Amino acid sequence: MRIAVLGATGPAGSGLAARLASVGFEVVIGSRSKYRAMEVRDKLVATWPEIDLDISADENSEACAEADVAVIATPWDAAAATASKCSQSLRGKVVISMANALAKVGNEFQPLVPPRGSVAASVQAAVPKSLVSASFHHVPAKELGDLSEPVISDVLVCSDHLEATRTTIDIVSRIPDLRAVDAGQLSNAAPIEAFAAVLLQVNVKYKTRVAVKFTGLPE
Ligand SMILES: NC(=O)c1ccc[n+]([C@@H]2O[C@H](COP(=O)([O-])OP(=O)(O)OC[C@H]3O[C@@H](n4cnc5c(N)ncnc54)[C@H](OP(=O)(O)O)[C@@H]3O)[C@@H](O)[C@H]2O)c1
What's the gap in Å between 73 CA and the centre of ligand 1? Predict the structure, then answer.
């Protein structure tokens, strides 16, 4: 499976791209600038010479055309427009939204309410012919991108499309120590995205980077 990560020149997208490539996915680094995408690709390959990372680089819409699945890893207010620009090449494909709508006000992280209630819902509206899921919101970028260590977290997945839920769960499950949790319909993207503000606040308070783990789930 080939996965395009749009906005993969930022910490979240590049960390996810590296992690996905490390478990055998073909990954395309997407950016508004092919040159920036190539720089990030070269940096990832140079950082992990001992790992065979199958990573290419392209402008966002080209990356989508080459891929089976796309991940939107841009700032929240660019996610729907980024997806919309690639709508033709994303038709019929699973599109995973990982963006959180947050504002930092002083030392406080505040969740915002984007149009349609969540970033993922606004992405789905922008690409109605695609199968949008919401996932990876709470996995810290630094841990995702540090391939020398496992990344340990539960990862909530929600979508209105069974195929998108299944595909996203399959992708998450390929990464050792990440556990995918089916969180239902895309309407749950709103509280999932907003909860990222809580986690960031906890990080500030305790000077750490927390991740999510649920108890009570069957093994
Ligand atoms: N940081 C984390 O730990 C973490 C964890 C989970 C989820 N997230 C979410 O993941 C998303 C990305 O986080 P990040 O910290 O990597 O973000 P970021 O560095 O601010 O942005 C990522 C990339 O998005 C592209 N971009 C920026 N503005 C854009 C615009 N107006 N239109 C289109 N593309 C634009 C840029 O790539 P180009 O200029 O190369 O196009 C940029 O490098 C956020 O929504 C965040 O909430 C973050």
Answer: 5
